[in-house]
Design a protein that fits this description.
This protein is of the alpha+beta class. It contains six helices and eight strands; from the N terminus they run E-E-H-H-E-H-H-E-E-E-H-E-E-H. A two-stranded antiparallel ribbon has the order 1-2. The chain has helices at 24-28, 43-49, 65-85, 112-120, 143-158, 192-205, and strands at residues 7-10, 16-19, 61-62, 127-129, 135-137, 141-142, 166-168, 177-179. The two termini are 25 Å apart.
Length: 206
């Protein structure tokens, strides 16, 4: 049965499918790490996108032009680290990440760990507990706090044993990256209803 968790995405062919990246930092890549999927074109886009994530932000997020630059640099660093962890570095067809807004100088590719550490050094969102004993966040959450949470999640992922579970979808021309949380560690597809189903159809036809 298809997992109901994750984000609902629309592919280039118009098909809608649910995709679970498995962790916050890889989910952040869905904001448009590669062309033509860029969703963060202005600070308001970052403020609107952060509440869509598994972090569970329900209140307002504040973001400025500097936050947009920081977000795209952090996202590019996570993309490159994830591609390496998935064993896809240098594979033909794997795209390079979008990094900076027009007019901004690109960060050196070798600076990825520094970018993660710098973002993680900022204070993360502040957790609170409500009268109903439900866990939430102190609002407003700043974009810097959100990016800190993303960076800390990335550090936890890439510095630990789960880095060996980072995968890139095996589907043709599909570059979605996810953390394989299945017990056998054998997940190959972004979604069984999309690339997994396409492979089944090819197998039947052959």
């Amino acid at each position: 049965m298809e997992d109901a968790s994750g984000m609902l995405l629309t592919g280039g062919d118009g098909q809608r499918f649910r995709f679970d990246a498995g962790t916050l930092c890889l989910e952040f890549l869905l904001s448009g790490a590669v062309e033509p999927w860029e969703l963060l074109r202005e600070p308001a886009d970052l403020a609107a996108w952060a509440p869509l994530t598994r972090l569970g932000i329900e209140g307002p997020v504040t973001a400025g032009p500097g936050d947009l630059t920081a977000a795209r640099r952090l996202r590019a660093a996570i993309w490159r680290l994830a591609v390496r962890s998935a064993g896809a570095e240098g594979v033909p067809g794997v795209p390079s990440p979008i990094e900076d807004p027009p007019g901004e100088a690109a960060s050196p590719a070798g600076d990825d760990l520094r970018v993660l550490n710098a973002a993680a050094a900022a204070p993360p969102p502040v957790p609170v507990i409500g009268a109903d004993r439900e866990r939430g966040w102190a609002y407003p959450v700043t974009a810097s706090q959100f990016l800190s949470a993303v960076a800390r999640d990335a550090i936890d992922l890439f510095s630990g044993p789960r880095a060996g579970r980072v995968r890139m979808c095996a589907g043709d021309n599909c570059y979605l990256i996810f953390l394989d949380t299945s017990r056998p560690g054998a997940r190959r597809w972004c979604s069984m209803s999309r690339c997994g189903n396409r492979q089944k159809l090819r197998t039947r036809r052959s």
